[in-house]
Amino acid sequence: MFESLSDRLSGVFDRLTKQGALSEDDVKTALREVRVALLEADVSLPVARDFIKKVQEQATGQAVTKSVTPGQQVVKIVHDALVEVLTGEGEPGALKIDNPPAPILMVGLQGGGKTTTTAKLAKRLKEKDGKRVLMASLDVYRPAAMDQLAILGTQVGVDTLPIVPGQKPVDIAKRAKQQATMGGYDVYMLDTAGRLHIDEVLMDEVEQVSAVVNPRETLLVVDGLTGQVAVEVAQEFDDKVGISGVVLTRMDGDGRGGAALSMRAVTGKPIKYVGLGEKMDALETFEPERIAGRILG
Ligand code: GDP
Fold this sequence. Notes:
With 297 residues, this protein is of the alpha/beta class. 50% of the residues lie in helices and 13% in strands. It has eleven helices and eight strands. The protein has an eight-stranded mixed β-sheet with strand order 3-2-4-1-5-6-7-8, sandwiched between helices. The N and C termini lie close together (10 Å). The structure holds guanosine-5'-diphosphate. Guanosine-5'-diphosphate binds at residues 108, 110-116, 194, 249-250, 252, 275-278, 282.
């Protein structure tokens, strides 16, 4: 499908003279290939440009190590720079959930994988961290979404807040908080409603809920295959409600994962998890090394 960057670069450097250090021209030629690789991986143009500039400064004049070819050396420099940008603060996947009951607000557009991810994360918190988790759906517009969460809850063995028809999202959130407190839960997760596009009503609603529960984490769930759109969605949610982290879903698909780089470069928010399939255990902590390897091919 794609030619790997290492292959491309070894081609480029085969044509170049053997020198002791990477010359500016060598690096420029190589970085043209890197740029194509980044764009093919769906990294946005301004992000790719900035990234290349940074790498160019680092690479020029570096002594060529005897044990590797100049091509391999540039790939390593690019790889390390990718990892640096992709790495967020703290432990991968760490969530601020001490002080029970800790609210986690799940936000995002419809179809991005929010409900599935809520259940996957609840399962993970229960099984890996031994937490008692309560989940509640605030999607009053699609009764099917509430049922979906309840079904997933049964499947993963995590409690869901009983559905009371006719309640507003803010009232459901208050009820979830109360139940989590009274029931001795460690964490309660609120699966907010999604829309096909970002709109004022959706944002106002999320803002109100956020004000009521004061979430410890607000996680944006977004389809990793949507590239630049994912980044725009993240910026809008962050401006309006403030997000603490991102979950990129559908990373099991064909995409090369460039959205991850754009996401980090543009929003600066940590990518905490990646969704790798529809099954309930297909959620992993975000590993910068892995995505860097995938972007480079
Ligand atoms: P929501 O509208 O944001 O709540 O989205 P859903 O959780 O209902 O997910 C929409 C569809 O995407 C469902 O069919 C999920 O099984 C699927 N899905 C969610 N996460 C992933 C993922 O990481 N990989 C794949 N392949 N499918 C996913």
